[in-house]
Structures are given as structure tokens and as C-alpha cells.
Amino acid sequence: MMSAALIELSGIERVFHLGDSEVHALRHLDVRVAASEYVAVMGPSGSGKSTLLNLLGLLDRPNAGTYRLAGCDVTTLSAKEQARVRSERIGFVFQSFHLVPRLTAAENIALPMILAGIAPPRRAERVARALRDYGLENRANHRPDQLSGGQRQRVAIARATIMQPALILADEPTGNLDRNTGEEVMRLLEGLNDQGVTLIVVTHDGDLGARARRQLLMADGVLEQDRWRSPRVD
């Protein structure tokens, strides 16, 4: 039996205007994702998967349709209210890490808590735990340019999860990593999913997408297939 819905998209449309032309990035999209699911959004460049990621992450708004997150219609919220929901409920992991270059690993991890106004003692405790959990204790005071790709992505995952979100959105999370390091990163993300965090991975990599229990296959802004597979075997 499927868990309660975390994400409900109904009739989502996203249109971009380029000069005199209209580009329909998403067309009447209906998707339901249950809490704790592991979903891969797949498709070629221009299929709409990145637009979908931005909408799910409240980085963009649809032109039409409804997006409910944990039962709340987030499409009707103000920009400030959306920012609060994003901070509390959604974690992002990007291909290019998106770490702040001048901040140390510990400071990058702490950043979401600073923005949320969490008190310094609590921040320090949670950062110390995250550094231990992700094997970064001896890299706490290193800036991103002093870290390997795998270490940078571990910092990014620690930052994405420090606010204990219900949803992690991962955009080509292994794209800048070698095979072994990419495997390590995916095991970290899948471990979070095993703990009940909903994981949505956006990728054009068929092998990466095949790891998920469910694949949403996009083409020209349309959901062409909603495919389920047997649970992964580690």
C-alpha cells in the first residue's frame, strides 16, 4: 500500500516566452510521489526534467496547475513563504556542488541553519555530527578548492540534509565524479532514502536512473512513462 502523498502535481503547465515564440517546457503534468519514495526523473536535454526539478524545489512557479507539498498548496504561497518551506522541507544536491568558495566545509554545512536563525550552540552540535557522519572531520576547516570532488559532494549532501528535510532533490549528483566516487555518493543518498527521506534524482544516465524504484520518463515536456521496478539489490 502506498504511503501518504508528499508531492501532488495536478495539471502543471510551464511556458517560457522566447521572443515571439512559446516553449512549453511542461504540459499538463500530473504526478503523485509518496513519502519515502525513490524516484528518477529521466529524459534527454530539453525534455523538461530540469524545469520539473525547479518547480519541485520551489525555485520556479508553474503557469497553471497545482503543486501540493505535504498537503499544502505551495503554488499559492508568497515568495517569502516559499523560501521558508524550501528551507525547512527541501534539500538540494547539484552536479556542480554549489558550495560557497570562501567558506570552509563546516561553514558551508552550517549555512542553511544560519539562514533559518538556529542558535550557534545548536548549529555547532549538528555540524559536528554531520562532519562525523560523512567522514569529513579532518576536512572541517578546508575550503572547497582544497577538497576532492567526492569530499565536496559529501559536504553538499551534509548541507542539504542539515535541516532534516522530507525531500532531497539531486540534479545529476554524480556528473562530475569518477565511477567509484559516484557510487559512494549514491550509496549515501540511498542510505538517506532508506531512513525515510523522499529522494528524487534527475538524470539522463540510464544506469543511474535504473537504481531507483520508480522512473518518470520525460520527453518534450510530457510524462511519457511512469515505470516501476523491483526494489534495488545492493
From TrEMBL:
Q: Which domain of life is it from?
A: Bacteria
What's a single GO CC term here?
plasma membrane
Give every ABC transporter domain span: 7-233
One family name in Pfam for this protein: ABC_tran
Single annotated GO MF? transmembrane transporter activity
Stated family: Belongs to the ABC transporter superfamily. Macrolide exporter (TC 3.A.1.122) family.
Name listed for the protein in its UniProt record = ABC transporter ATP-binding protein YvcR
Give the species: Candidatus Accumulibacter phosphatis
